[in-house]
Amino acid sequence: MKIETKCLHAGYTPGNAQPRVVPIVQSTTYVYDSTEEVASVFDEPTKSLIYSRFANPTVMVVEAKIAELEGGVGAMCTSSGQAATLLSLLNLCSAGDSFVSTTAIYGGTVNLFSITLKRLGIECIYVDQDAGEAEIHAAFKANTKAVFGETLANPALKVLDIEKFARIAHAHRVPLIVDSTFATPVLCKPFEFGADIVVHSTSKYMDGHAVQVGGVIVDSGNFDWTSGDFPDFTEPDPSYHGIDYVGTYGKAAYIIKARMQLMRDFGVYPAAHSAFLLNLGLETLAVRMKQYCVNAQIVAEYLAACDCVEKIIYPGLPGDAGYALAQKYLKGASGVISFIVKGGREGAVRFMNALELASNEVHVADIRTCVLHPASETHRQLTEEQLAAAGIDPGMVRFSVGLEHVEDIIADLEIGFKAARG
To answer: Does the pTM exceed 0.70?
Structure first.
């Protein structure tokens, strides 16, 4: 099936006289006829459902759909994108380990990596994603367990050279984790370029309507966990009846381990109703992503010619630094544009405060146009040095182009720029 069809049909096929629409199974628990049956499911949780902290029928439909959209062997939904990123790394790293990450990533992820994981004894080693391979190789340590990057960085919009980072990660026998939130599987399938794990904030384009917060981890099933560097995958797990994840689950070892160890202990599983709403968004994802790209391209070309814009960052423009990589990896540059308003922070704030159609909100990738000032909002916890490393200028505006008529969006921009001029 083509991706438009998968968005509608993957993950759920109703039988005779069953609901056409994915039903909401609003239950925390499931009933069995005997104690022995319950015990057998505790021994082997993939055998059946036992408690909705692990799995729920409605959520499982969404997990199966996203896994199929990405081309993975399995997926696990979480209560937020941050939870997905956290668990994707905790599934690999323990206190005393390290991982490598590019600097051009979401501000909340920087805080998670630099502060919270550091408190847990896990070190993040930052690298410039545009650095040469030799420089990036030099960042690795003996205890490095993963590499992390974003397909389209939020909000710097740098395009990750996935093949380069996969090659480097695999040379050190560690997996590459890619946050592909802005691209979605409609615009990019990181597994096809060597990535091993993909995470998404499903709150963004996948949901598309700003109605629920969520995340997902998708396992490619391609990484070889038997190298000797990941004994947690190949040696008996004392916390779960001595299960050997690779020996028992094969290619799905990573995602099953994440569910049986981390979801069990952290309990960051989404509610059935949230998954139902997410599925409605996924059904129109392919259609929406095409129109986001069309609208954003027109807006980007308008901004590139605007005398109030000091710099525009949109990899769909031929002059953009990420254009060549976007042509290689993306089937469209998504709907998010970053640009620097002349007049610095003050000019950007005047511009944003004057907008009438676009919503000034801490969100992105919505069906409605929204705008944000990263230096004052999502990335305000970063130092000036960290802002610069993340590619964020004080005058930068993150503009998420929605699905309104593009002429109305441009008319709103003109109102903002009139105010920015003072």
So the answer is: yes
Residues 143-159, mean pLDDT to the nearest whole number? 95
d(CA 218, CA 201): 12
Interatomic CA distance for residues 408 and 387, integer angstroms: 32
Tokens of 422: 């003072």
User: Is the predicted pLDDT of residue 25 greater than 80, yes or no?
Assistant: yes
Of 365, 390, 371, 396, the C-alpha closest to 111 is 390
Express each pLDDT in 226-247 by its tens digit: 988 999 999 999 988 899 999 9
Give the residue-averaged pLDDT of 194-223: 98
The C-alpha atoms of residue 183 and residue 198 are separated, in whole angstroms, by 11
Question: What are the pLDDT digits (tens) for 58-67?
Answer: 999 999 999 9
